[in-house]
Amino acid sequence: MAAEVLLIAGQPWLIQRHRRRKRAALRVDSAGCYCLSPFGTPESCLKQFVLQHQAWWQAQLKSLPNLKPFQADSIWPFRAAGRLITSEDTPKRLKQWYKQQAEDYLPMRLDDWASRMPKKPKGVKIRFYTARWGSCNRRQEIQLNWALMACPDEVVDYVLVHELAHLVHFNHSRDFWQLVATYYPEYKQQERWLRQQGHIHLTQLKSLNF
């Protein structure tokens, strides 16, 4: 089936229809603009819906980060050094490379911090998340985003300490933040970096043909 595309105000919109969706919605990211729709909704209705929200999506487009091009000799974010793209790289290979770097580094670094803190996790999983850097569940397991490998080491350490602190306090109470500050006093600086720069790195890595 050919893709359904709407051209509105010079911007192409890919229509994605879903059986369980009850109402239309819009998504804008570095990969493009998407109109999420229930089955059976006429294109004329979707066009009107996109036009009604034109001010919103035009603002979203303007706020998208300026991503690094995927081309030879460009430098993608990787810890403190960066990662030089070569002519042999492909998006799939680069994605696998980031994942492998994360699998080699993050569990080792997490173990190092856990040996100093009150509790150790019962398990560690590494995967890609579009909106978070890590999480901790009530089974005392920690999940880490392999996109952390695009961040400075100081930011990685803060995220690890943050998640390890959740093994003790499964909340963001005053006691939780006091525990974080005990092991990582400069955590507010790294939090600020994530707020200001983190979404750029997530969007950059998400562009690797997910």
Automatic annotation (TrEMBL):
- Residue span(s) of domain YgjP-like metallopeptidase: 88-196
Residues annotated as signal peptide: none
Query: What is the protein name for this chain?
Result: YgjP-like metallopeptidase domain-containing protein
Species, as recorded: Thiomicrospira cyclica (strain DSM 14477 / JCM 11371 / ALM1) (Thioalkalimicrobium cyclicum)
